[in-house]
Amino acid sequence: MQLDRHDRHILEIIQNEGRISNQELADRVGLSPSPCLRRVRALEDSGLITGYKAIVDAKAMGLTLMALLHISMDRHTPERFANFDSTVSAIPEVLECLLITGQDADYQLKVIVRDMDAYQDLLLNKITRIEGVTGAHSSFVLRQIVNKTAIPIP
């Protein structure tokens, strides 16, 4: 899909203000409501907009401990990675899972839990029990400086 300046502007706004009304979005990008809505639908249909989400305050929910885990695997086979990927995807405390290179680890996970007891349970009873996991090294987040969901629109 070829993006023009209106499409780019729509994407910039909608990433940060997902609940914006079509009328307000149209006003801000300089279009009338009907063409604006058609463009949003086209961006959705093309797969550039993959969904809309509410961002929930973790601390207000009692989730105060965030950690980054570096996970090492015993074998680098497609089957081993596929099993890890599907298993870790089903764990609600895992916010992000990245297959990485350039480290001693194979994966980096970002997890969030209530407290250290909950973290210990997650690590010992879920993460390290995944077939093929041979190591888990944790770093605890002291303070989150940047937390973006919006990507830059070129």
From TrEMBL:
Keyword Transcription: yes
SMART domains found in the cross-reference section: HTH_ASNC (SM00344)
Superkingdom: Bacteria
Signal peptide range in chain numbering: none
Any GO MF annotation of the entry: sequence-specific DNA binding
InterPro entries: ArsR-like_HTH, AsnC-type_HTH_dom, Dimeric_a/b-barrel, Tscrpt_reg_AsnC-like, Tscrpt_reg_AsnC/Lrp_C, Tscrpt_reg_HTH_AsnC-type_CS, WH-like_DNA-bd_sf, WH_DNA-bd_sf
Protein name: Transcriptional regulator, AsnC family
Species name: Marinobacterium lacunae
GO cellular-component term (any): cytosol
Alphabetical list of CDD domains matching this protein: HTH_ARSR
The HTH asnC-type domain, residue ranges: 3-64
Lineage, uppermost ranks: Bacteria, Pseudomonadati, Pseudomonadota, Gammaproteobacteria, Oceanospirillales
Biological processes, Gene Ontology terms: regulation of DNA-templated transcription; response to amino acid
Keyword Transcription regulation listed: yes
Pfam family membership, one: AsnC_trans_reg
SUPFAM superfamilies, per database record: Dimeric alpha+beta barrel (SSF54909), Winged helix' DNA-binding domain (SSF46785)
Keywords in alphabetical order: DNA-binding, Transcription, Transcription regulation
